[in-house]
Predict the structure.
Amino acid sequence: MLVMMKANATREEIDAVCRRIESMGYKPHPIPGSTRTAIGITGNREPVEPVALESLPGVGECVPVSKPYKLVGRELKEDTTVIDLGDGVAIGGRQLAVIAGPCAVESREQARLTAARVAAAGARLFRGGAYKPRTSPYSFQGLAREGLEILAEVREEFGLKIVTEAIDAESVEEVERYADVIQIGARNMQNFSLLKRAGRARRPVLLKRGNAATLDELLMAAEYILSEGNYRVILCERGIRTFADHTRNTLDLSVVPAVQQLSHLPIIVDPSHGTGRREKVIAMSRAAVAAGADGLIVEVHHHPEQALSDGNQSLDPAEFEQLLREIGQIAPVLGRSMA
Ligand code: PEP
Ligand code: MN
Protein backbone atom coordinates (compact mmCIF):
# COMPACT_ATOMS: atom_id res chain seq x y z
CA MET A 1 0.00 0.00 0.00
CA LEU A 2 1.06 3.58 -0.62
CA VAL A 3 0.25 6.43 1.70
CA MET A 4 -0.18 9.59 -0.37
CA MET A 5 0.38 12.60 1.85
CA LYS A 6 -1.44 15.84 1.15
CA ALA A 7 0.51 18.44 -0.82
CA ASN A 8 0.71 20.66 2.26
CA ALA A 9 1.63 17.88 4.72
CA THR A 10 4.35 18.95 7.13
CA ARG A 11 7.63 17.18 7.91
CA GLU A 12 6.23 16.29 11.36
CA GLU A 13 3.10 14.75 9.83
CA ILE A 14 5.20 12.66 7.45
CA ASP A 15 7.43 11.53 10.33
CA ALA A 16 4.39 10.61 12.41
CA VAL A 17 2.99 8.42 9.63
CA CYS A 18 6.41 6.73 9.27
CA ARG A 19 6.49 6.06 13.01
CA ARG A 20 3.00 4.57 12.90
CA ILE A 21 4.08 2.27 10.02
CA GLU A 22 7.12 1.18 12.06
CA SER A 23 4.92 0.49 15.07
CA MET A 24 2.89 -1.86 12.87
CA GLY A 25 6.13 -3.79 12.26
CA TYR A 26 6.70 -2.55 8.70
CA LYS A 27 9.28 -0.38 6.99
CA PRO A 28 8.24 3.08 5.71
CA HIS A 29 9.86 4.60 2.60
CA PRO A 30 9.00 8.30 2.33
CA ILE A 31 9.66 9.46 -1.25
CA PRO A 32 9.18 13.16 -1.98
CA GLY A 33 7.58 13.96 -5.34
CA SER A 34 7.18 17.29 -7.11
CA THR A 35 3.74 17.88 -5.60
CA ARG A 36 3.54 15.60 -2.56
CA THR A 37 5.33 12.93 -0.60
CA ALA A 38 4.31 9.30 -0.98
CA ILE A 39 5.22 6.71 1.62
CA GLY A 40 5.79 3.15 0.41
CA ILE A 41 5.42 0.31 2.89
CA THR A 42 7.50 -2.87 2.79
CA GLY A 43 7.93 -5.80 5.14
CA ASN A 44 4.24 -6.72 5.27
CA ARG A 45 3.13 -10.25 4.34
CA GLU A 46 -0.57 -9.45 4.30
CA PRO A 47 -2.15 -6.36 2.72
CA VAL A 48 -1.82 -3.38 5.08
CA GLU A 49 -5.05 -2.20 6.71
CA PRO A 50 -5.54 1.44 5.62
CA VAL A 51 -7.76 2.50 8.55
CA ALA A 52 -4.87 2.86 10.96
CA LEU A 53 -3.19 5.38 8.66
CA GLU A 54 -5.97 7.15 6.79
CA SER A 55 -7.06 9.18 9.77
CA LEU A 56 -3.60 10.55 10.60
CA PRO A 57 -3.06 14.28 10.02
CA GLY A 58 -1.62 15.12 6.59
CA VAL A 59 -2.65 11.85 4.94
CA GLY A 60 -4.42 12.33 1.60
CA GLU A 61 -5.29 8.77 0.69
CA CYS A 62 -4.09 5.19 0.98
CA VAL A 63 -3.90 3.37 -2.33
CA PRO A 64 -3.22 -0.31 -2.95
CA VAL A 65 -0.22 -1.10 -5.18
CA SER A 66 -1.21 -3.00 -8.29
CA LYS A 67 2.33 -4.04 -9.28
CA PRO A 68 4.70 -6.60 -7.73
CA TYR A 69 7.19 -3.80 -7.13
CA LYS A 70 6.24 -1.11 -4.65
CA LEU A 71 9.02 1.46 -4.65
CA VAL A 72 10.25 1.70 -8.25
CA GLY A 73 6.80 2.19 -9.79
CA ARG A 74 5.30 5.41 -11.08
CA GLU A 75 2.36 4.78 -8.78
CA LEU A 76 4.60 5.85 -5.93
CA LYS A 77 6.10 8.83 -7.70
CA GLU A 78 4.79 10.48 -10.84
CA ASP A 79 7.84 12.50 -11.78
CA THR A 80 11.11 10.94 -12.91
CA THR A 81 13.73 10.72 -10.19
CA VAL A 82 16.64 13.06 -10.69
CA ILE A 83 19.90 11.81 -9.24
CA ASP A 84 21.96 14.83 -8.34
CA LEU A 85 25.68 14.11 -8.19
CA GLY A 86 26.67 17.67 -7.34
CA ASP A 87 28.62 20.30 -9.31
CA GLY A 88 25.75 20.62 -11.79
CA VAL A 89 25.85 16.94 -12.79
CA ALA A 90 22.57 15.03 -12.58
CA ILE A 91 21.00 11.96 -14.14
CA GLY A 92 17.29 11.95 -14.95
CA GLY A 93 16.78 15.68 -15.33
CA ARG A 94 16.55 17.85 -18.41
CA GLN A 95 20.25 17.48 -19.09
CA LEU A 96 21.46 14.35 -20.88
CA ALA A 97 24.07 12.51 -18.84
CA VAL A 98 26.98 11.12 -20.83
CA ILE A 99 29.29 8.71 -19.03
CA ALA A 100 32.41 7.96 -21.06
CA GLY A 101 35.68 6.16 -20.58
CA PRO A 102 37.46 2.88 -21.08
CA CYS A 103 36.00 -0.53 -20.36
CA ALA A 104 38.74 -1.07 -17.79
CA VAL A 105 41.27 1.10 -16.02
CA GLU A 106 44.51 -0.34 -17.39
CA SER A 107 47.09 2.11 -16.07
CA ARG A 108 47.36 5.65 -14.74
CA GLU A 109 48.56 6.87 -18.10
CA GLN A 110 45.74 5.20 -20.04
CA ALA A 111 43.07 6.54 -17.70
CA ARG A 112 44.48 10.06 -17.75
CA LEU A 113 44.91 10.20 -21.52
CA THR A 114 41.35 9.06 -22.10
CA ALA A 115 39.92 11.25 -19.32
CA ALA A 116 41.62 14.33 -20.74
CA ARG A 117 39.94 13.75 -24.11
CA VAL A 118 36.45 12.92 -22.85
CA ALA A 119 36.51 15.88 -20.47
CA ALA A 120 37.67 18.21 -23.24
CA ALA A 121 34.85 16.90 -25.44
CA GLY A 122 32.33 17.86 -22.76
CA ALA A 123 31.61 14.68 -20.77
CA ARG A 124 31.07 15.22 -17.03
CA LEU A 125 31.15 11.57 -15.96
CA PHE A 126 33.96 9.04 -16.38
CA ARG A 127 33.63 5.27 -16.48
CA GLY A 128 36.29 2.57 -16.12
CA GLY A 129 36.23 -0.80 -14.42
CA ALA A 130 38.63 -1.62 -11.61
CA TYR A 131 36.90 -4.94 -10.96
CA LYS A 132 36.10 -6.62 -14.25
CA PRO A 133 33.65 -9.51 -14.54
CA ARG A 134 35.29 -11.35 -17.44
CA THR A 135 33.97 -14.37 -19.29
CA SER A 136 37.39 -16.03 -19.08
CA PRO A 137 39.37 -16.29 -15.84
CA TYR A 138 42.51 -15.82 -17.96
CA SER A 139 41.44 -12.39 -19.24
CA PHE A 140 42.52 -9.13 -17.58
CA GLN A 141 40.56 -8.91 -14.32
CA GLY A 142 41.14 -5.24 -13.53
CA LEU A 143 43.51 -3.37 -11.22
CA ALA A 144 41.17 -3.54 -8.19
CA ARG A 145 42.14 -1.04 -5.45
CA GLU A 146 44.90 0.48 -7.57
CA GLY A 147 42.34 1.11 -10.31
CA LEU A 148 40.07 2.88 -7.83
CA GLU A 149 42.93 5.09 -6.71
CA ILE A 150 43.62 6.04 -10.31
CA LEU A 151 39.93 6.87 -10.78
CA ALA A 152 39.99 9.07 -7.69
CA GLU A 153 42.95 10.96 -9.18
CA VAL A 154 41.05 11.36 -12.45
CA ARG A 155 38.16 12.88 -10.50
CA GLU A 156 40.48 15.41 -8.90
CA GLU A 157 42.47 16.28 -12.00
CA PHE A 158 39.64 16.54 -14.52
CA GLY A 159 36.59 17.26 -12.35
CA LEU A 160 34.81 14.17 -13.67
CA LYS A 161 32.30 12.15 -11.65
CA ILE A 162 33.35 8.51 -11.39
CA VAL A 163 31.21 5.49 -12.29
CA THR A 164 32.77 2.08 -11.64
CA GLU A 165 31.62 -1.47 -11.13
CA ALA A 166 31.38 -3.51 -7.94
CA ILE A 167 31.20 -7.26 -8.42
CA ASP A 168 30.61 -8.46 -4.86
CA ALA A 169 29.89 -7.17 -1.37
CA GLU A 170 33.59 -6.55 -0.63
CA SER A 171 34.09 -4.47 -3.74
CA VAL A 172 30.97 -2.38 -2.95
CA GLU A 173 32.77 -1.35 0.22
CA GLU A 174 35.79 -0.20 -1.80
CA VAL A 175 33.86 1.34 -4.68
CA GLU A 176 31.64 3.45 -2.43
CA ARG A 177 34.75 4.97 -0.86
CA TYR A 178 36.22 6.06 -4.20
CA ALA A 179 33.41 6.47 -6.73
CA ASP A 180 30.37 8.71 -7.25
CA VAL A 181 28.20 5.94 -8.69
CA ILE A 182 28.38 2.18 -8.07
CA GLN A 183 27.81 0.17 -11.23
CA ILE A 184 26.23 -3.28 -11.01
CA GLY A 185 26.85 -5.18 -14.21
CA ALA A 186 24.56 -7.26 -16.37
CA ARG A 187 25.99 -10.51 -15.02
CA ASN A 188 25.12 -9.48 -11.48
CA MET A 189 21.67 -8.04 -12.07
CA GLN A 190 20.14 -10.86 -10.05
CA ASN A 191 22.92 -11.27 -7.51
CA PHE A 192 20.50 -10.57 -4.70
CA SER A 193 23.00 -10.34 -1.87
CA LEU A 194 24.98 -7.80 -3.91
CA LEU A 195 21.78 -5.84 -4.64
CA LYS A 196 20.92 -5.75 -0.94
CA ARG A 197 24.42 -4.55 -0.06
CA ALA A 198 24.17 -1.84 -2.73
CA GLY A 199 20.84 -0.90 -1.18
CA ARG A 200 22.71 0.00 2.00
CA ALA A 201 25.49 1.86 0.17
CA ARG A 202 25.83 5.62 0.42
CA ARG A 203 26.23 6.12 -3.34
CA PRO A 204 23.75 5.95 -6.20
CA VAL A 205 23.66 2.68 -8.14
CA LEU A 206 23.76 2.20 -11.90
CA LEU A 207 21.98 -1.11 -12.48
CA LYS A 208 22.49 -2.77 -15.85
CA ARG A 209 19.89 -5.06 -17.35
CA GLY A 210 20.90 -8.72 -17.44
CA ASN A 211 21.40 -10.00 -20.94
CA ALA A 212 18.35 -12.24 -20.70
CA ALA A 213 16.28 -10.27 -18.21
CA THR A 214 12.73 -9.13 -18.79
CA LEU A 215 11.64 -5.63 -17.87
CA ASP A 216 9.85 -6.93 -14.77
CA GLU A 217 13.01 -8.74 -13.66
CA LEU A 218 15.02 -5.54 -14.11
CA LEU A 219 12.50 -3.56 -12.07
CA MET A 220 12.38 -6.21 -9.34
CA ALA A 221 16.20 -6.13 -9.16
CA ALA A 222 16.03 -2.36 -8.68
CA GLU A 223 13.34 -2.91 -6.05
CA TYR A 224 15.87 -4.92 -4.01
CA ILE A 225 18.11 -1.84 -3.85
CA LEU A 226 15.32 0.60 -2.99
CA SER A 227 13.80 -1.73 -0.41
CA GLU A 228 17.04 -1.45 1.59
CA GLY A 229 16.74 2.33 1.62
CA ASN A 230 18.87 3.45 -1.34
CA TYR A 231 16.41 5.27 -3.59
CA ARG A 232 19.05 6.56 -6.00
CA VAL A 233 19.07 3.97 -8.78
CA ILE A 234 19.70 4.49 -12.49
CA LEU A 235 18.63 1.74 -14.87
CA CYS A 236 20.66 0.85 -17.95
CA GLU A 237 19.79 -1.00 -21.14
CA ARG A 238 22.94 -2.67 -22.47
CA GLY A 239 21.63 -5.18 -24.99
CA ILE A 240 20.11 -8.61 -24.66
CA ARG A 241 20.99 -11.92 -26.22
CA THR A 242 19.09 -12.84 -29.37
CA PHE A 243 19.78 -14.97 -32.44
CA ALA A 244 21.27 -11.96 -34.24
CA ASP A 245 24.96 -12.32 -35.00
CA HIS A 246 25.71 -8.98 -36.62
CA THR A 247 26.05 -7.50 -33.14
CA ARG A 248 27.32 -8.74 -29.79
CA ASN A 249 23.91 -8.08 -28.22
CA THR A 250 20.63 -6.67 -29.47
CA LEU A 251 20.08 -3.20 -28.05
CA ASP A 252 16.45 -3.15 -26.94
CA LEU A 253 15.60 0.53 -27.21
CA SER A 254 11.90 -0.15 -26.78
CA VAL A 255 12.65 -0.77 -23.14
CA VAL A 256 13.28 2.97 -22.70
CA PRO A 257 9.64 4.09 -23.13
CA ALA A 258 8.52 0.87 -21.40
CA VAL A 259 10.56 1.74 -18.30
CA GLN A 260 9.34 5.33 -18.43
CA GLN A 261 5.75 4.17 -18.40
CA LEU A 262 6.19 1.89 -15.39
CA SER A 263 8.95 3.43 -13.29
CA HIS A 264 10.09 6.79 -11.99
CA LEU A 265 13.75 5.72 -12.18
CA PRO A 266 15.94 7.27 -14.87
CA ILE A 267 17.11 5.01 -17.69
CA ILE A 268 20.28 5.33 -19.71
CA VAL A 269 21.60 3.28 -22.64
CA ASP A 270 24.93 1.55 -23.25
CA PRO A 271 25.41 1.40 -27.03
CA SER A 272 28.90 -0.09 -26.59
CA HIS A 273 27.99 -3.41 -24.98
CA GLY A 274 24.66 -3.11 -26.76
CA THR A 275 26.29 -3.53 -30.15
CA GLY A 276 29.83 -4.74 -29.48
CA ARG A 277 30.98 -2.99 -32.64
CA ARG A 278 32.54 0.45 -32.77
CA GLU A 279 30.99 1.35 -36.13
CA LYS A 280 27.48 0.92 -34.74
CA VAL A 281 27.91 2.88 -31.53
CA ILE A 282 27.27 6.41 -32.81
CA ALA A 283 24.11 5.45 -34.72
CA MET A 284 22.65 3.64 -31.71
CA SER A 285 23.59 6.55 -29.44
CA ARG A 286 21.57 8.87 -31.65
CA ALA A 287 18.69 6.40 -31.56
CA ALA A 288 18.86 6.07 -27.77
CA VAL A 289 18.65 9.83 -27.30
CA ALA A 290 15.80 10.01 -29.81
CA ALA A 291 14.00 7.25 -27.89
CA GLY A 292 14.09 9.45 -24.79
CA ALA A 293 16.92 7.92 -22.77
CA ASP A 294 18.21 10.04 -19.88
CA GLY A 295 21.78 9.49 -20.96
CA LEU A 296 24.44 7.21 -22.36
CA ILE A 297 27.34 5.17 -21.04
CA VAL A 298 29.92 4.82 -23.78
CA GLU A 299 33.29 3.09 -23.94
CA VAL A 300 36.07 5.35 -25.16
CA HIS A 301 39.77 4.47 -25.28
CA HIS A 302 42.63 6.70 -26.41
CA HIS A 303 43.96 3.73 -28.45
CA PRO A 304 41.09 1.22 -28.88
CA GLU A 305 43.31 -1.22 -30.76
CA GLN A 306 45.51 -1.49 -27.67
CA ALA A 307 42.67 -1.91 -25.15
CA LEU A 308 42.91 -4.83 -22.73
CA SER A 309 39.14 -5.33 -22.93
CA ASP A 310 36.35 -4.38 -25.31
CA GLY A 311 38.59 -2.57 -27.82
CA ASN A 312 36.26 -3.63 -30.66
CA GLN A 313 33.44 -1.57 -29.25
CA SER A 314 35.43 1.36 -27.90
CA LEU A 315 35.33 4.68 -29.70
CA ASP A 316 38.47 6.68 -30.16
CA PRO A 317 38.36 10.25 -28.80
CA ALA A 318 37.59 11.81 -32.19
CA GLU A 319 34.63 9.47 -32.68
CA PHE A 320 33.40 10.36 -29.22
CA GLU A 321 33.54 14.05 -30.10
CA GLN A 322 31.45 13.29 -33.17
CA LEU A 323 28.95 11.37 -31.03
CA LEU A 324 28.53 14.34 -28.69
CA ARG A 325 28.09 16.75 -31.58
CA GLU A 326 25.40 14.61 -33.13
CA ILE A 327 23.39 13.90 -30.00
CA GLY A 328 23.75 17.57 -29.10
CA GLN A 329 21.68 18.32 -32.19
CA ILE A 330 19.03 15.72 -31.39
CA ALA A 331 18.67 16.61 -27.70
CA PRO A 332 16.73 19.88 -28.18
CA VAL A 333 14.08 18.06 -30.24
CA LEU A 334 13.33 16.08 -27.06
CA GLY A 335 13.42 19.19 -24.87
CA ARG A 336 16.78 18.22 -23.47
CA SER A 337 20.17 19.83 -23.34
CA MET A 338 23.76 18.75 -23.17
CA ALA A 339 25.97 19.60 -20.22
C1 PEP B 1 30.97 -2.80 -18.48
O1 PEP B 1 30.25 -1.80 -18.41
O2 PEP B 1 32.19 -2.74 -18.67
C2 PEP B 1 30.34 -4.14 -18.41
C3 PEP B 1 31.01 -5.20 -17.99
O3 PEP B 1 29.07 -4.11 -18.82
P1 PEP B 1 27.93 -5.24 -18.76
O4 PEP B 1 27.76 -5.56 -17.32
O5 PEP B 1 26.74 -4.54 -19.35
O6 PEP B 1 28.40 -6.39 -19.57
MN1 MN C 1 33.23 -3.33 -21.36
Observations:
- The chain has a mean pLDDT of 97.
- Residues 103, 129, 133, 185-187, 208, 238, 270, 273 surround phosphoenolpyruvate (ligand 1) (CB under 6 Å).
- The chain has two domains: 2-63, 83-338.
